[in-house]
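Table 4 source record.
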Amino acid sequence: MDNRISDHSTPLLTNKDEKPPVTFVRKLWEENKMVWHIAGPSILISIFQYSLNFVTQTLVGHIGTLELAAVGLQNLVISGISFGVMLGMATALETLCGQAYGAGKMRMLGIYLQKSWLILLGTAIPLTLISIFATLLLSLIGQNRDIAELAGTYSIWMIPQLFMYALNFPMQRFLQAQSKVWAMTWISFGVLAFHIPLSWFCIMKWGLAGAAGSLNLAWVLLVILQYAYIASGCCKDSWSGFSWLAFSDLLGFLRLSLESAVMLCLEYWYLMNLIVLAGLLKNAEIEVDAASICMNIEGWIFMIPLGFIAAVSVRVSNELGAGNAAAAKFSVWVTVSIALVTQIAFALLIFITRNNFPKLFTNNKAVMKHVSELAEFLCVTIFLSSIQPILSGMAVGAGWQGAVAYVNIAAYYLIGLPAGIYMGLILDWGLEGLWSGVIIGVGLQTIILLIMAWRTDWDKEIQSLKKRITDAVGSDEEDT
């Protein structure tokens, strides 16, 4: 299927043998289909891969509360840091592969994939220090010593997962840029189906060591199966094997990767601060439990915007690469509209069931009551997730990671977080005050990104992109 929208300035035709003009409704329908063609499978991929850790953590709960706390802490803090960095750096591939695909420079996709592998594997080496010294790190932030020691041991066992992140995320972006997402969907589903019984067997037989072994194996299988798909000939236009060209201009690629990592990590870690700061409030146990339940719900619902992020970054980068400025802009607003409808539906469902859904997570009446009181804040956050992530995906597709990183620093950490700390801790508004600061930061960032999208000269973006692709291809252009 053609992933690009042609020029929409076609004049009215009078010849009965010629095609009728493309109407706005037809354009809207075609763009909607292309967005869902990418977003639908991407949502499933996010859910399946997110479920790998979720299944392991749930099964570990049958061993004991200490093991459950250790795995949860490792997954949230230690693995969360590495996951954010790896995923963020791989996001550079969404920009470059998507634009190269749109421009028809297919061979460059494979070169970009190899560059990303080199940079992420190199980054993974120093990141292992976080896992090695996890016990010390967790103790410094005030965690229980027994939990910190067990989480530190589990973190060392999970080091192979870090290197699988470095291989897996670039392959996902490489395939995503070509809209080859259904293959990843089936691979992710197959690995999850294999992981559930294997994880249960390993955990029941070997405990925490079995949990680490089965989860590492799941990520190794993801990498092997995705590479097998790429090398099988299904990507023959974009993958022609390993090349020395992957070592050229690594510094330029590294800069975009770091910008992408900073942009995404600032967003990924922002909501994590809510749970950390909740531990400083009065009645900390109830506050942390309530915040954790709300963030759990937000985490699952956020799988939907993740699919739209993938779709809009692919659509924008493809259209800019093909020189279709109007189509890129049109795709942004169509995707935002789709996301608005879906997220508003989820927000309404949460609000209507605010006195009932907490029962799914806890039997503590004080926690249930507090979660119900926080439902309005959760609904606002879900609503903002219909706009803000899509605009971030647009920024990735256009290659604006550096600019958005500065926006995130200002909106989140210079305004939102201090405002939340002031309202929650100094004014003693509790978790509601902390969360108000989070909403202020996300809302401000959303407004700034909307202004950037509205004021962007997309034709100028195309000219900059053509120069970047020409410079990147260099002498390789003659070979292709």
